UniProtKB/TrEMBL annotation:
Swiss-Prot/TrEMBL keywords: ATP-binding, cAMP biosynthesis, Lyase, Magnesium, Membrane, Metal-binding, Nucleotide-binding, Transmembrane, Transmembrane helix
Protein name, as recorded: adenylate cyclase
Membrane topology type: Multi-pass membrane protein
Family, as annotated: Belongs to the adenylyl cyclase class-4/guanylyl cyclase family.
Organism field: Ruegeria atlantica
Compartment(s): Membrane
Enzyme Commission code: 4.6.1.1
Keyword Cell inner membrane appears in the UniProt entry: no
CDD domains: CHD
Catalytic activity, reaction form: ATP = 3',5'-cyclic AMP + diphosphate
UniProt cofactor(s): Mg(2+)
Annotated ranges, domain Guanylate cyclase: 241-371
Residues passing through the membrane, by range: 23-43, 49-66, 78-96, 102-121, 126-146, 171-189
Pfam families in the record: Guanylate_cyc, MASE7
Amino acid sequence: MLKHIVDSENPIDDGKIRRKMQVVNVAAFIASLGFGFTAFYQFQLGPDWRYLAWVNFGLGFAALLTMTLDRFGLEVKVAYFTVWLFLFLAHDISVGKNGEDHLVLLVGPPLLFYFLGAAYWRWITLITILSAALFIYISLVVPLHIPPGETIWDIIAQSYQDGFVRQPQDVIFIVLILGIVSALFFTSYSANAAIDRYEDALEKEFAVSERLINVLLPSRIAKRIKAHPDRLIAERIDDATILFSDLSGFSEFAAANGARATVKLLGSVFSAFDELVLSYKLEKIKTIGDSYMVAGGLDPSVKERQPDSVRMAALAIDMIATVERVTDNLHPKVSLRVGIHKGPVIAGVIGGDKPFFDVWGDTVNIASRMESTGEPGRVQISPEVRDEVAEYVDCERREVINIKGNGEIQPYWLLKVHDKPATSHSSERLIKG
């Protein structure tokens, strides 16, 4: 029944629900403390006060139970606390309205907007109407003190017998109360509707910023930046694997086919690369024009059956196959050239408003040279990579090349990658050289 009364077209997110539940819990705890101290004091006054003491103790315990209703949801918690409030008022006015506690009926319902939000205006409207009617009735019928020997029910019965005859000023009082209730209701509704809109806008902006930072940076780096945004992030990795790739023939294709076809090609190729990198649990570093850079071994928490260099070799073969598939019917012909090297690197985040995660060092330079001195449709790996992946791959030695600053290097063409080491060829990736 409650779900039919409550307007849940704009459900409250989990964060808001937790905050609002905490507010209700605080209110319930304060109420239980108040009733508990009152009951304790009344127990000390003697037997004549025992009944009221037990009633107040029961009301305090009932308020405390509100804090145990989290698993039933915010609506049930607030509904229970509202019912408890009405029971408290019913008990309080049983001895007269001198305590003026029935004033809660005026300010209480609008406070529901702060607990539930403006989306629940239908339910809050119903509670507000009932509360206003009850406040007016109590104000006009219930005396300040119930005379000795009478009960509240005697007073109510007498009012029925008198036919609710009222003075003209009572009409003015009713109009005044309705005006106050209406003002409180619409003010609270407007304020909380604005708060909900602002919170929704902030949450959308936060979601966009979260997505962007996780796209621009590895998740582990993004977490460190969010935890300590002013702290320098720099680390040395002693054994990283770096891959560089470049689209051979891309400049000719761009000149012949125009902007739309060029951007579409890059989008298709790099999107496929992104999925492959994730599947191999490696890290995309950056793209520069038609170049694509990947790193492995940067995250010590990644524990895979195969070393990162083997996964990088398998990635390289899949990348070449992807480009062949995507560009099969394109003209001029576009193919991928790949180079891989491994060794120590420096990794870190640079930039303020636009943070950028990058890696530097001689290892990066050699990996870039492995790519630039390679051939379209082939993967060239350094001897360091070949030594580590030897059990998993088939390689072909090529002529020695000279790299500036590093002298002569004996590179290899990567031909085939096996899922298992040594002689097991049950599943393999192949490049046709």
